[in-house]
Design brief:
The structure holds 2 protein chains of 2 kinds. Chain A is mostly helical. Chain A is built from 12 helices and no strands. In chain B, α3 runs antiparallel to α4. The chains are: A mainly alpha, B mainly alpha.
Amino acid sequence: MAAPRTFSSTGEALLGGLKAALSSIFFFVIGGTYIGIGALAHDFGFSAWWMALSTVLVWAGPAQVILISALGSGSPLIEAAIAVSLTGIRLLPMVVALLPLLRGEGTRLRDLLLPTHLTSVSMWVESLRLLPGMLREHRIAFCNGVALGLMGVAVAFGFVGFYLAAGLPPLFAGGLLFLTPVSFLISTARNARAMVDRLSLVFGLALAPLLAMLHVQLDLMWSGVVGGTLAYGIHRLREAAP
Amino acid sequence: MNADMAGLWPYFLLVLVGFLPNEVWRALGLMMARGLNEDSELVVWARAVATAILAGVIAKLILLSPGALAGIPLGLRVTAAACGFAAFLLVKRSLFVGVAVGEAVLLAGGYLFAP
């Protein structure tokens, strides 16, 4: 779909963003992911409204998966908070890269608050692809439209997954829960273009179950810090090599 | 499941353990929006740690599965994930194909080898 370059009003730019969200590949990715997360929330004993609110407030699939599985299985709160926070670090550089695209001459800080909260991997990828083709004065509204459209899809499919998990035969309920790890595994691998990201993926996959089976406290945090630092170290050594 | 998961307590935890620890990075990003670039060493390291954590979550969901997924044999879960990943690599790095193949293998295997 070609990006519409001009809009007659802010409202029309918002609507244009909503339409872009619904025709994006991320419609399917987010739909499938949130069916999985909704099913997970159901199986860990949360309510459907809690699930919907977590999508609106947290708006980050990996953080929601960690939050639900950590709280639901009774992990210490500090461990859950640290694990959620560590996955959120990737949002920082995304916000840093996105805001300069949105900011114009008359932009106030409060205009940037909503796009900042709405920043997620999917919205970020779509915004960076579509925003450069349009006038600066419409970018914030368009970007909000994209993100709110995707968030609407996520909330709706979260409910779908939640109630499907409640009424489905065990095999299909298992299949829904399987959507989350398999779609995250593949989308993380797809996004991991640099060697350091691929190594982090492999180390994290290997370390976390190992540490969990050895009953190491804060297993997710340690697999992240150790696996990520190891990957980063190898990347630095390779760069330093002639 | 926790005995405490009733009333407003889960919503309190959602804000305290889910919203705030995640949102702090967006707020910092807003403050730092000038001056830090995507290729700076700190950002590369942070991304590596975040990727490893996400990978850890994925592995634990597949190997130490919760809920209904635990009813599907471990070998089948791992085989299905591996088939999905292989399909993704073979068919134009398509996320859709990978997920569809992984799910198909899991459901077909679960149906055929049901006790």
